[in-house]
Amino acid sequence: MENSKSIVILCAGGPAPGINTVIATVTKRFLSDGFRVLGLNYGYKTLFTAKQDFIELTYDLADRIFDKGGSYLKMSRYKPKNEEFNSDFFEKQNVKLLVTIGGDDTASTANRISNFLAEKNIKIQNIHVPKTIDNDLPLPDNIPTFGYHTAKNEGVRIGKTILEDARTSDGWFVVSAMGREAGHLAIGIGLACHYPMIIIPEMFFNTEITFDKIIKMIISSMIKRELMGINYGVAIISEGVFHYLSSSEINNCGITFTYDEHGHPELGNVSKAHIFNVLLQLELKKLKLKFRSRPEEVGYELRCIEPIAYDLKYCTNLGSGVKHLFDRGESQCIVLSTANDEIKPLYMKDIANEKGVIVPRLVDAKSERFLLTLRSFEYIALADYAAAKRFVPNPEIYDLKNILNLNI
Fold it and tell me: Could you say which of 104, 105, 134, 136 is catalytic?
């Protein structure tokens, strides 16, 4: 069977609900057309080594995994360098198509591999399936990345329980939500749960992000709700703010970190919610305010759950779309399934920068819709200044429009 035409599927980055649906659909479509379907374990990690870690996928297996959470194929964040590239696996296994399932890094790496193979005059198509619960791949017309809606749905289920706990115990929770650079997940969960304060990195487009500003925004919401006669609440913060905080800001925040070999703090080893909550409690103590708060992390709980109906259908469309685009001869593209269930290619050259890197899609914080959303947050505004002086001597510095330097 080694000389039979084949395709290879690999999954890279972190898990997202719907991966198995894509794997299963692609497998069924290509097996039915006489191809071998090879599933590569651990993403790109062994693709260019002497011994690749792969399995042959069967129709029966596809039938059993299509609606399951997690990924049947093992995943890795390994990112090969250009000098590691070779064509051995592709030629030996007679690979006609490389199907990559992942986010912007996975797509960018696939783009580099495709360019390398083209330079070697090896004709192999590459089609990328956009996966990330962060929803940060730059797909047109606000098309979501698969897994986002399922992750958001589960995040809202957890988030409502957290709000109920806050209400029951007359306290506050500080929630940190996944989102490497973008705040889509945090704002999606926060708005659905009617959280009084939502903090994402994109909202700081007129000012530098600092811990002090983040903490002031939470305290502003705490005081505002107290003025409303409500002594509980939840503030949700996208972990993406850490991507924009300066090194000195992180190093001087008072939290003890471990550091990698380059001297960078290993943020993955600590709870972001814990950091925010500790800094919040220190500031509340300094202001002699007696609000109680607890940290809660929402992230890994969302990645491997079973996909909801939306993502089951969406990922089935994407898997079928891979075969459709392959038959058309498309390559170096992302498969799109539009709101009208049309299958279209999105060429990587059209969304990559001059270095071939795909720039993530961020929340459009300058849009009228987002500014209207900001006005719905609960914070100290001009009309509250006099009453807020019971809590802080200078309420104007807790006004959201002053913190963010915005006219809202």
Answer: 134
